[in-house]
Amino acid sequence: LSPGAKMGCFTFIKVMMILFNLAIFLCGGTLLGVGIWVKVNGESFLNIFGALSSSILQVVNVAYLLIVIGAILLVIGFLGCYGAQKESKCLLMMFFSVVLIIFIAEIAAAVVALVFTGLAETLLTGLVTPLLKEKYGVDRTFTEIWNITMTEVHCCGLNNYTDFNNSYFYETHGSYPRQCFGISPLLHPHPRGCLLQGCFKQILEEIRTNAGVAGGVAAGIAALEIAAMAVSMYLYCRLDEK
After folding, report:
1. How many CB atoms lie within 10 A of CB 195?
2. Using CA atoms in the order 190, 194, 195, 201, what is the torsion angle rounded to 10 degrees?
3. CA 167/CA 176 separation, integer angstroms
4. How is the chain split into domains, by residue range?
């Protein structure tokens, strides 16, 4: 290519890099703001999005998750956008390094998820089951999250209804949550059907059912990360030639 064509290509990629990372920066700011809102006023968030996000709300703290993701996106967007605008080799290298670390972490997490699914279930059970016993019926937001989850996913507890044995709720009311029963107000969990199943296995089944969609999204994110690293390295190397 002629010097003019190379400069035009460099300028085009630079502008695309700025716009792409500006979008990432704005998305990060939005997620950070939503995360702070959820942390400050989680009940309002639950009332609006509870039915849509109940499967997620039960196993993660949405507020902290959104804050962390938003902060990471803000950093990535700033490094990529400002680094391309100022043609800073230092910022472009930092952008490349951050994206590379995230890419490696995602691969490692995927491998761990595939290999140690049973271990993850054990750890999750050890963390969530005590919370059910202690906070269900005490913490209003926590209780509402689980009520919506059990209603939407048609399940009871994390593993099954026995998660509520010796819990604050059972000791106080003398029975299990009504979401664990059939239509009639029984004193014991339904002897048949999905209500004997815990929410964790139900959600895993839903994830397996939609594994193709999840895999496609993951592949798309990985492709974007690889493209972002390639573009940042192209700009970084081209700066030496200017």
Report:
1. 20
2. 140
3. 9
4. 1-86
Query: For residues 44 and 217, which has the higher predicted lDDT (pLDDT)?
Result: 217
Q: What is the mean pLDDT of residues 72-93?
A: 89
- The tens digit of pLDDT for each residue in 109-133 reads 777 767 766 666 676 677 778 888 8
Q: What is the pTM of this model?
A: 0.60
Give me the percent of the chain exceeding a pLDDT of 70. Answer: 74
Phi, psi angle pair for 160, to nearest 5°: -170, -170
| Helical (H) or strand (E) element with 9 | helix 3-40
The torsion angles phi and psi of 87, rounded to 5 degrees, stand at 55, 50
Which DSSP category does 87 fall into? T
Instruction: List, for residues 171-206, the tens digit of each pLDDT value.
Output: 888 888 888 875 554 555 555 444 567 888 777 776
For residue 121, give both structure tokens.
Answer: 């279930």
Residues 45, 39: Cα–Cα separation, whole Å: 9
Q: Are 195 and 156 in contact (CB under 8 A)?
A: yes
C-beta pairs of 178-181 under 8 Å, 24+ apart in sequence: 179/147, 179/150, 179/151, 180/150, 180/156
